Amino acid sequence: MSSTVATEQGLRIDGKAAAAELLEQVKEDVQAVVKHGVLPTLAVILVGDDPASDVYVRNKVRAAENVGIRSLEYRLPASTSEAELLQRVKDLNADASVHGILVQMPVPKHISEAAVIQAIDPRKDVDGFHKENVGALSQGQDTLVPCTPAGCMLLLRKVLGQDGLRGLHAVVVGRSNIVGKPMAALLLQADCSVTVLHSRSKDASALCRQADIVIAAVGRPAIIGADWIKPGAVVIDVGINRISTLEGKTRLVGDVDYDAVAPIARAITPVPGGVGPMTIAGLMANTVKAARMQAGM
Ligand SMILES: Nc1nc2c(c(=O)[nH]1)N[C@@H](CN(C=O)c1ccc(C(=O)N[C@@H](CCC(=O)O)C(=O)O)cc1)CN2
Ligand SMILES: [Mg+2]
Q1: Is 223 annotated as a binding residue?
Q2: What is the CATH number of domain 37-121?
Q3: Is 125 a known active-site residue?
Q4: ipTM of the complex
């Protein structure tokens, strides 16, 4: 199955197809690790009852099952204290049969996200959020890389080729720890010239218009219009925004105004069906990688 689809508006990058392909590869990798007597195991912790998080956690557990990864699911009430959550993480750190630990974000307000991330053994940090992994990534070392930016890189290489990013100007719109910052590090490692834009940037649209590659990770529906995009740019939309429609329903839209941008872009990811599916596939890839590293393979 091809990961790019020619449409009347130009190339659409099919994240579902790319994720399916990656998951097939992960399935083979799991089988190889199992032959060495190691069963890759992922622990997923959800605190509270946020409906979107509930869906993501269910999808992660299902994806794990499909590729042969054992999963442990911990659903804790919203009233769980930070100390209780940290103890759970500590127990999982100490359990040698567990290779990956993930705490679904966001956590309830009374819990420090940073404290939780730092409590996870960096070797089991399959989200790649721990300072040690962030530092390793920024130094260009092989490490556990955050799943969404890693997925964006795979999609970019589908369009541009393995070495096709070299020398291109990439603009990342958004500077979150989960997406914007690791994305910039990965693009730099791929020899791009990288600009990071954020809410305080002056003339953001003019700067963005210089980009060969645009990564939109702002979290505001359709904020990036055609006037932000240079004709022929490759556009990756990380935004997942739920908006109300005139019919009183809700639907998902990205940070990019797809209908306006697709006709001028060389290629673009849709929302849904673009980057989102790559996040979960990337998590599976990181879990096998963590299992391999822990087994000294
Ligand atoms: N611990 C983590 N928490 C969060 C992460 C993360 O990587 N690690 N990322 C997001 C949520 N997320 C995974 O956890 C995630 C978001 C979206 C998708 C996805 O496949 N989206 C679909 C649409 C799904 C829908 O209909 O709602 C798509 O874009 O096609 C997967 C994973 C925050 N928290
Ligand atoms: Mg086009």
Answers
A1: no
A2: 3.40.50.10860
A3: no
A4: 0.96
